[in-house]
Amino acid sequence: MSERSFSAEASRGLTRRRFVTGTGSVLGGLALLGPTAPTAYAAGTGEATAARTDSLLAPIESGARIPVLVVGTGYGGAVAALRLAQAGVDVHMAEMGMAWDTPGSDGKIFANTTRPDQRSFWLRTRTKQPLCQFLGYPIDKDIPRYTGALDAEDFAGITVYQGRGVGGGSLVNGGMAVTPRREIFPALLPTVDPGAMYDVYYPRANQALGVGSVDRAWWEGADCYQYARVGRKHAERSGFPFVFVPGVYDWDYMKQEAAGAVPRSALDGEVIYGNNHGKKSLPKTYLAQAAATGRVTVSPLHEVTTVTPAAGGGYTVTLNRLDTTGATVETKTVTAGRVFFAGGSVGTGKLLTRLRDTGALPALNDQVGKGWGDNGNVMCGRANHLWDPTGALQSSMPTAGIDNWDAGGAFAEVAPLPTGIETFASFYLAITRTPRRAEFRWNPAAGRVDLTWDRAWKQTSIDAAKTIFDKINAKEGTVYRSDLFGAYKIWGDHLTYHPLGGAVLDRATDNYGRLHGYTGLYVIDGALIPGSTGVNPFVTITALAERNIEKIIATDL
Ligand code: FAE
Q1: In this model, does residue 13 exceed pLDDT 80?
Q2: Is 373 in the pocket of ligand 1 (CB under 6 A)?
Q3: Which of these, 335, 309, 311, 338, lies nearest to 60 by C-alpha position?
């Protein structure tokens, strides 16, 4: 059977009931997460994700034949699933993380930033917080090993933070929804028409993500943004443009948090381990819309391990069903007409590199695994004078940054330090221009994929960030904090929140994400972007996915 007729047959002849567990499927999905009852949270954006996406949860049965399998439920995967479903295609999504729809014993789905527990980290027995020290004291602590929401994935030269669960990075990120300035776009994705991106796909992505802007009048007087106003004052006194950026938090909900009218989330410091309320994460946007089509199902706690051509057409996909300790409790094999790789830059980059180099997909080209970058991420803090307090109450949702991209190659997000106490610190995540690109390499002796990143490469990013902060420190008579990332360590140069690349557009794939070497295999996530977006990346990942899936639906299906 040809690949095309396989898909057509699969779409026509297989109902969802035949390839997912039947009536028990939704309960089955919940049961995977533990014994606690499904939640019913407050209305509006405060409501739990379950309210809108529980109908998606339907673990796939071994032996199923499906038209489309999407690997991962982050931005790229959610766009692919929604648009394919709207085009009449049944889609199944495999997600290695949990569904995050069930509260723990404290009544909350996600753990608080200041009180990490097993829900916080992906399969770690000790937290690995981005800021590992405070005032000279280590702040990491032991936790039970669990399939938590934030993965701090260690490679030789860098720790890559990623979201794990239905919704991918949208569960744990800061919600800064930034469209890069049009002038810098051609350098980011040289083979993509900026006209179409800025006229069609960025607006489409922003609309579907629910991107909006904070009420500036409210912001000017809000206690929780004092830290940002101090950031603005210091930026502007040194002559740097201070730019407000949109976000995906429900700003009206935040106002109600400040007024004490609803449960606090951003104002309770929730962010990197998930937001219990307020953030318009993918389960409330793209995935909720996907659920409404009735054509999309999700297997949480299912990790795709192998994809290889099937004898009768399509692809044989192997999935490990995990328990919450990360152990494989079942291995399933299904057949998919098409596979969309959306495991994120690291997930997709590692998986494709391994599949090529271990013989499962040997025709993938030599560009697979290459072009990986850290979006030039580097963090730092500054110690303010006692007359410049940044506030004990800090909203965990950043709203603005310092733009020195053209002159110094840096855009610095004025970030919160939501400790609950006055720290007199200003904290920044800088996104910098960096020429450094690493690659994923299969390591047969160790049986794993390595990343060739070198910690010393961050010096370019530090230099770029210093174009902003050396000047501000000189002007303000202040110094860098040296107690946040280790003893006497100024720069958070050991990590990234923004992995990009690993299966770059128009190199590992064609100009729309079709993998070279195989019909019916696609990349549709941050792996397509060659290492940098110049700003926070998820809007660009979403917009590019919108562009590519539109073309794929029009021409391949
Ligand atoms: P992603 O969202 O990572 O989704 C991939 C999904 O695939 C994950 O759920 C994985 O668990 C799953 N997966 C991977 N491998 C497999 C497999 N083999 N089988 C099954 N499932 C698999 O990918 N970006 C912004 O624009 N603004 C921000 O404010 C911002 N803040 C951030 C803060 C933090 C702490 C972090 C970690 C990231 C932040 N980001 C931010 C980055 C942003 O979340 C990230 O670029 C996107 O989530 C990447 O989207 P993808 O679709 O590529």
Answers
A1: no
A2: no
A3: 335
Predicted TM-score of the model (pTM): 0.93
Which tokens in the block code for residue 395?
A: 């909203």
Whether 369 and 465 have beta carbons less than 8 Å apart is answered as no
Catalytic residue among 413, 439, 476, 550: 413
- Residue 75 Cα to ligand 1 midpoint, Å, equals 7
Q: Answer yes or no: are the C-beta atoms of 228 and 412 closer than 8 Å.
A: no
Q: Round the average pLDDT of the chain to a whole number and report it.
A: 91
**pLDDT tens digits, residue range 78-130?**
999 999 999 999 999 999 999 999 999 999 999 999 999 999 999 999 999 99
**Nearest Cα to Cα of residue 109 among 56, 209, 34:** 34
Q: Which of 92, 498, 546, 550 is catalytic?
A: 498
Write down the pLDDT at residue 36: 27
Q: Which atom of ligand 1 is nearest to the CA of 151?
A: 37
Beta partners for residue 448, in sequence order: 443
Which of 60, 93, 95 has most ligand 1 atoms within 8 Å of CB, for mutation?
A: 95
Q: What is the pLDDT of residue 50?
A: 54
Which of 538, 540, 546 most suits a substitution to test ligand 1, by most atoms within 8 Å of the C-beta? 538
The CA dihedral of 124, 127, 128, 129, to the nearest 10 degrees, is 150
Q: Does domain 3-101+117-556 have CATH number 3.50.50.60?
A: yes
CB neighbour class for 327 (10 Å; exposed up to 12, middle 13-18, buried from 19): exposed
498 catalytically annotated? yes
Q: Which amino acid makes up residue 544?
A: L
In this predicted model, which residue has the larger pLDDT, 1 or 439? 439
The DSSP code sequence of 278-340 is SB--GGGTHHHHHHHHT-EEEETTEEEEEEEE-TTSSEEEEEEEE-TTS-EEEEEEEEEEEEE
Interatomic CA distance for residues 407 and 137, integer angstroms: 37
- What whole-number percentage of the chain has pLDDT above 70? 91
Residue 95 CB less than 6 A away from ligand 1:
yes
Residues 353-373 pLDDT 10s: 999 999 999 999 999 999 999
Which of 128, 498, 524 to mutate for ligand 1's pocket (most ligand atoms within 8 Å of CB)?
498
- Joined tokens for residue 190: 């040289």
Q: What was the pLDDT predicted at 47?
A: 57
Check if 92 is active-site.
no
